[in-house]
Amino acid sequence: MNGEEGRSVRRSALLRSLLELPVILLISFALVFGFVRPVVAAPFYVGSESMVPTLQVWDRLLINKLAYDIEGPERGDIILFRDPEGGEEPLIKRVVGLPGDQVAVRGGKLFLNGEPQKEPYVVERACVRYQPKTCSFGPATVPKGHVFVMGDNRANSYDSRFFGPVPEETLIGEALFRFWPPGRAGSP
To answer: Band of the pLDDT at 36, cuts 50, 70, 90?
Structure first.
């Protein structure tokens, strides 16, 4: 191959590479916004204090939308679900009760099936006198196909104590990863 042919081959390879880049970017964009975001994972920002101290207002999370396609939620999972009362914004809470569990709150402490629960993530002031359902609630049995959810900031959380158990078909996904702020990045 002479010098002229070599330059021509290099030019056509460079041109091919330059044309491939926009095609790859376009396909990547379509996959992320056409498949990954609606089906696999989505970002979510925390808009209330109901999950303090675990999640702070304005924390940004990645929600795993496939988490409950094979197995149901477990106690302790932090889940995103559609507002059972029809609000536009989804809610984020911790699963504390599964189908068949009997849930009660006494003196601000959670009881499952009559046993007090250890919840190191709960704000210490879980019981606020004259604030409904923070000091006592229940017992209530979680029906089949539902979960009982509560915020970690029990005195400042509108949760299953008020709107009842959450139907599993309204679950959007599980909190997978906190990506903002960078200093708090990691598992929620």
So the answer is: very low
CB 103 within 8 A of CB 136: no
Mean pLDDT of 157-175: 95
Among residues 167, 183, 32, which one has the least CA distance to residue 91? 167
Is the pTM higher than 0.90? The answer reads no
Quote the CATH superfamily of domain 46-184: Umud Fragment, subunit A (2.10.109.10)
- 91-97 and 146-150 as β-strands: parallel, antiparallel, unpaired? antiparallel
Residues labelled as active-site residues:
50, 93
Asked if 127 contacts 135 with a C-beta cutoff of 8 angstroms, the reply is yes
Q: Which residues contact 41 (CB under 8 A, 6 or more apart)?
A: 62, 63, 64, 65, 66, 173, 176
Distances (CA, A) of 11 to 8, 21, 35, 147: 5, 16, 36, 62
The phi, psi pair for 44, rounded to 5°, reads: -150, 140
DSSP letter at 57 equals: T
Exposed/middle/buried for residue 129 (C-beta within 10 Å: 0-12, 13-18, 19+): exposed
Q: Where are the domains of the chain?
A: 1-42, 46-184
Q: How many CB atoms lie within 10 A of CB 148?
A: 28
Whether 63 and 55 have beta carbons less than 8 Å apart is answered as: no
